[in-house]
Each structure stands twice: as structure tokens, then as C-alpha cells.
Amino acid sequence: MTDTPDSRDGHGSIDGASAPDDGSTGGAAGGPDSGPVRGPGDGGSPTRLRPRPLERPDTDPTEQAAFGRPDGVDSSFAPPSTHTPGDRARSGVGAAPPPTAAVARAFGRPDDGGAGLQRPPGPDGTATPGEQSREPFWPGGSAADPWRDPGTPVVAAPPHGDGEPEPAPQVADGPRLSVREVLFGKRVQPRALAILGVLALGAGALGGLVGHWTAAGASALTSPGAVLATAEEAKERPPGSVPEVAGRVLPSVVSLEVTVGNQAGNGSGVVIDPEGYVLTNDHVVAPATGPGQGTVEAVFSDGSRVPATVVGADPMTDLAVVKVPVANPTVAAIGRSGALAVGDSVIAIGSPFGLVGTVTTGIVSAVDRPVRLDPEGSAGDAVIDAVQTDAAINPGNSGGPLVDATGAVVGINTAIRSAGSAEAGGQGGSIGLGFAIPIDDARAIAEELIRTGRVVHADLGVNARSVTDGATDGAEVQNVVAGGPAAAAGIAEGDVVVRVAGRPIASADELVVAVREHEPGAPIPVELVRQGRPLTVTATLGER
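Structure for Serine protease, S1-C subfamily, contains C-terminal PDZ domain, as requested:
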């Protein structure tokens, strides 16, 4: 029978047997003194070995003082009642100071002396002081709880989802809806539905009768044996075509009707600003600004008429600006005349002979063509550096726009050259020589007229005429204005001007337009021929 150790002292003795005092192992298995020992009272029982004594090293006094049990304590936890402040002091363990009042109120037991957490209440609802309740904490006691029974077998639960899925519940079919419920939600009586159906049938029958009568009447208009001529589909009008460009530009073109007393005349203009400013020729509105003080009326392409007021005019370039009281008018796009080349397609729009919205086409025949306008028509001796075109331009086109293939305004139609005048004071027609003021020049003059009402031009201070010696053309100076820019630069009568600021001069008109290309006060080089010798002088331009 196996011995059961029931006590263990500090010297390693087991079953009441003391170990030898000499430190020997005393029969430990495998030791020098170990040997078979027979059980007591049974000489024939099998031999058994003595247990090897525990090896306990010597304890360090410092560790013994720090971690050892206090004197007089022989268990792990001594009852609190057996400790006194003196015992703690003798054992070296300091007593905890009494709690403060705040800590006692926060963590102390209530004043009514209720049971603590370790004393479950008894049958009467109160705990018995000083002893634990013997009632179990759950019905049946801890022996009936499988979680506290060490003999409860461990069984693995089946994985989630391995079981057979529950069948879906059978949903019964609901009541079926009628057409009246679907369409009207039971808000229309069956009698009303019947009336609606009758009305629908009547409307369908009436439509069928009308269609039959219409088809029968149409067939009676033609003879059954007639043969209709085939017609091709209308031609397309792609962007850039004449109809497409004209349709975009026409709303911005106006016809100007000038009345002075019993006299009346007409011309054209083009809207260049959303404020209602219209650009036209000076000779179109000049009668209204003269002594007679006539009136100017603008007629738009839709037939509307509004009065127009002259803002400013420049007889030297035959340009003028009038304003019409129209809200949000159609404004023409402004292009660049400097980008034109001979042969480019152009469109002239205006009111020749009072025919509003007339469109003619042609090409650019020449650029930078100096043209002196009729003094009577232009109210002054005007010279323009014109764009020449073969588009048909007639009296009444004056002031209208000359547009390129994109619909942008590149010139203001101003003058024509005709083979002669008609009988009885009439005017000659177009022979394919029309002239327009370049829009690059017209735009700058129009802006100045809108700002100040007048325009100042550069002046050289000479009068000249066109000359040629058969090899070289130029402008011969006939007289020099005393104290003018030419006199200050040393230009004399008889000098022939052949170049101004690098531009060749072949006529007196070219001298005028070459000087007006610059601003007043600008110094420019002037190349002369004096008595057969070339000469270059610098003249500071004046103003006129």
C-alpha cells in the first residue's frame, strides 16, 4: 500500500521519518544508501524505493527578511482577528493608515449595516453576520451545473450551416386586382367607365370618317392619269455657304432713311455694339446734320422702324456713327481686313435703291487701293485706302457691311466706279468696281467717334499731285504750308515724295493715306527726289 504524504516540514521529512542529520540522501533512488525496502508486515510484497529527498538550497538572509513569513505566522493567510498593531510592528509589516472621510463615504459600507457582497441574503432578505450562507448561488447546486462538473464530456458542436435549411414559408396568393382598381383605384364607378368607353369609340369612329373624306377629296384634285414631275431634295446649306452667312448677318444690317424737308435718301448701316451703335458712311447721314436738320430713321430686317441719332461723323474718311434705341440688338461680328487676300470670297449686304436686305457676292479684287471720293457725296475731300471688290454695289449699299466667308465684317461699302451717269440726273449702275473702307481703319475711327464725337488725323502740311517720269511714280509737292511739319523738315515745292515710312508712294492719294496711317506727333522718314537726287528727311507729323 502506498504511503500518502500528509505533512512536510522545513527539513524534507516524509511520513514521520527524519532524514539523517549528516546530510546524506538517506535511501534516495539511485543514491549510495538506497536499497530495496519491503512493506511492513508483508515479507513477500514487492520491493519499493524510498522517495528522493527534496533538495533545498540555503536561503539568503536578505531574501528571507524580504519574502519570509513574519514571526508567529505558520500559514499563508492568517485570520485578521489574530493580528494586532503590535504583531504588524513586530513582523515589520506596517499597518495601513485609516481611510479619509471622503474615501470612507465613497467606498465604505452603507450606514444601515446592510450585508456585504460576500454574504448572500437569507430567506428573510438579510444576511447573517459572521457566517456565509449555506444556500447555493444557483438552483440545484454546483454539482448539477455541467460547466462546473469536471466529469462532463466534451462534445464538438457541428459547424455552422451543415444542417438542413428550413423550408421557405408558403405565401398564399393575394386577391387579384381588376382593371378598374389598377387604373382608377376604385375611384371611378363602373357606369363612368362604360361612358368613357363609348366616348372613346365614338371619337375613333369620327376620326376614321374624317380621314376617309380627306383622302377622297385629295384624290379628286388630280386626274388619275396625271404624271407628276419628280423633284430632288433641297440642297444643304453647310456653314460658310452664302445662304448660311447671309442668314446670320442680315439681322445686324439696317436701312437708313434720311429725310430733309421734301428730300429723302437712303443708305445702309451695320450694328457694331450692343448699346445700339450703328456704323455707316458720312455721306449717308450728312444731309441730316447740315443746315436743314433732317431726320434719320433705321429700318431693321424684320421691318421694325426706330429713330436714329447721329453720334459723330468724320468727313476725312467718310465714316459716321448713329445710335438707335433698341434693346439687345443683333451685333455683327468684326473681322480683320489686314488678313484679306486677293481672290477671297466676300458678300455685300445693304439696301441698293431702297431694296432692303439685298445680298450680292464676289471676291476681293485688290487691297490697299487709294481712292479719292466724290467731294459732293462725301461732304469733303475724303481719301480711303480701300478694299476693291467685284461684288455688285449700287447707290444705297453705302454704309452696309462687306463680310468674308465666315460672316465677319471686313469692310464698309462706300463707293463704286461707273462707266457714266444716266440721263436726267440719274446714277450709273455697278460695273464690278466697288470699294469698301477696311474694317481695321473703320473700327478705330468708330471707337473714337463714340468716345469723343470727332477724329483727329495726322497731317504733313503739303499739297501734292501725281507725277511720273516713265520709270518712277510719285507725288510732287505743289505747295508747303508755312510753319507746318513739311516746312520744318525742309521739304520744298517741286520735291517728289517716293516713300513715306517705308511705304512706296505712286500718287498723291497714296501720300495722303500713308500719312494718315500714323498718329499726330509721330516722326516719320520721308524719301524725296530733289532735282534728280535722292534725299531723306524726318518730319514730325501735325494734326488736322
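The longest strand covers residues 358-372.
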